[in-house]
Amino acid sequence: MLKTFLLLTVVVLLGCSSGCGKNSPSEHGLAKGDNVIVIKDAKLAQDSGMDTMLVKGTKLTVSKVDGDKIWTNVLSPVTLGRHKSSAKAAEFSPNGKLIVSGGGSGDAKIWDVESKAEHGVLLGLEVQSNLTDIAFGPKGQQIAGGGLDGVLIWNVESQERIVQVSPSTLPHDIAFSPDGTLLAVAECGYHPDARKRRYVPCVVSVWNIGTGERTFALEGNRRDVHSVSFSPDGKTIASGGKDGSIRIWDTNTGEQLKTWSAGSSVADVVYLTDGKLIASTGDSGSVRLWQIGTGKIETTLVFSGTKGTALACSPDGALIACADYSGVVRLWNIEDGKLTLEFKAHTAVIQGLGFSRDGKKLVSASHDSSVKVWSIGTGEGLSGWVAADSLLKVID
Predict the structure, then answer these.
(1) Cα(85)–Cα(351) distance, integer angstroms
(2) Do residues 367 and 352 lie in contact, with contact meaning Cβ atoms separated by under 8 Å?
(3) What does DSSP say about strands 308-313 and 297-302: parallel, antiparallel, or unpaired?
(4) Is the distance from CB of 355 to CB of 62 less than 8 angstroms?
(5) Do 288 and 315 sit in the same domain of this protein?
(6) Are strands 339-344 and 385-387 parallel, antiparallel or unpaired?
(7) Neighbours of 152 (CB within 10 A)
(8) 27 by DSSP, 3-state: which?
(9) Residue-wise over 127-136: b if at least 16 C-beta within 10 A, else e?
(10) Where are the strands (E) in 113-211, listed by range?
């Protein structure tokens, strides 16, 4: 079993056919042109009994003192494409066949996961829209996107706009209710029209999708609301924002049920699958799991040196993924709080992150303008493996 590697220095050697190490894969049938990653950390090699790693296609062979071991389910990234400017959000459709993503220049695209081809472009957004978030409806028949033009809802099949709602300020985040009847919008506190630039109350607005009417304006945040999330049963909404507060709202009455302070700006909040805990991340440089009933911290998952930007919980409730300002993605096991995977996904801040319904893939959207899909490896021994950029390119 490989240990958790927080720092791993590797060198990629191309075309190595002999003499690649004491117990190198060359002694076990390494062909000319194979890619070899040589561990240069002496302490790591001593602790794990590992000398070299060989990547062939999607197979990873680790040469150890007690023999080779092969894993076939390694992390494998696929770049779907790029937006004209920064990619702000991305999400899988409920059936996992499509991905929708939105860019800072107002372009919203649908991608086919299997073919990796652009499936369509959503119409109705102006070039200056600066799309901030995009999401599939729970049945996969609708897509909502928020930007300077307000919040637009499209029919996925026809790709035509069917509803438009107009929050009073620029939307930061949007979320469908589990039954698809409501849309929650986190508003930033500034009028989206630069000609009318003024500070207005920060709210979570809740809209009836069927009528396009606003049902509630949930007030209480003193600064921008960054994130909203519906509970799995749809009865409550969680919000987090720049004032450091996390608030729980009743979707039937609009009443604020609970509030507590995270101590610093909150970038994202998400209900876990069981509905008993809420995860948050932001300026704290950690992922915190909160007990909804008490507002107390159940678990803190720490990463240092940067701020968290986006969260995603696997559908089975086993994993929590967090992206940060440096372009790194980390995954933890929720039950024991152990870091299971950490890798450099992008060259810039990541703002969009989401699991597929089967939990086997992860999509990420970044300010580097790219949208990427990651197959999450389940091979024994990959826990905690830090995947460097060079390694990701070899495996791809």
Answers:
(1) 13
(2) no
(3) unpaired
(4) no
(5) yes
(6) parallel
(7) 23
(8) helix
(9) eebbbbbbbb
(10) 118-121, 133-136, 142-147, 150-155, 161-165, 171-176, 182-187, 203-208
d(CA 346, CA 310): 13
The C-alpha atoms of residue 10 and residue 53 are separated, in whole angstroms, by: 10
Task: Give tens-digit pLDDT for 54-77.
Answer: 444 444 444 444 444 333 334 555
Q: Residue 223 is inside which H or E element, if any? A: none
Lookup result for tokens 């699958």? 273
Q: The tokens of 75 are what?
A: 């992390």
User: Do 18 and 34 contact (CB within 8 A), yes or no?
Assistant: no
What does the pLDDT look like over 277-321, one tens digit per residue? 999 999 999 999 999 999 999 999 998 778 999 999 999 999 999
**289 φ, ψ (degrees, to nearest 5):** -105, 120
Domain extent for 105: 76-376
Q: Are residues 41 and 114 in the same domain?
A: no
Report if residue 67 sits inside a domain: yes
Q: pLDDT digit string (tens) for 8-31?
A: 333 333 333 333 333 333 333 334
* Neighbour-count burial for 154-183, b at 16+ CB within 10 Å, e otherwise: bebeebebebebebbbbbbbbbbbeebbbb
Contacts of 156 (CB under 8 A, 6+ apart): 93, 98, 110, 136, 140, 141, 142, 143
pLDDT category of residue 118 using cuts at 50, 70 and 90: low
Question: What CA–CA distance (Å, rounded) separates 123 from 128?
Answer: 13
Do 86 and 201 reside in the same domain of the chain?
yes
Q: Which residues of 77-106 are buried (b: 16+ CB within 10 A; e: fewer)?
A: beebebbeebbbbbbbbeebebbbbbbbbb
Q: What is the pTM of this model?
A: 0.75
User: What is the number of other CB atoms lying within 10 angstroms of the CB of residue 145?
Assistant: 29
> Whole-angstrom Cα distance, residue 345 to residue 187?
28
Strand arrangement of the beta sheet that strand 35-39 belongs to: 10-14, 35-39, 50-56, 59-64, 67-71
Residues 335 and 365 in one domain: yes
Within 13 Å, how many C-alpha atoms sit on residue 58's CB side?
13
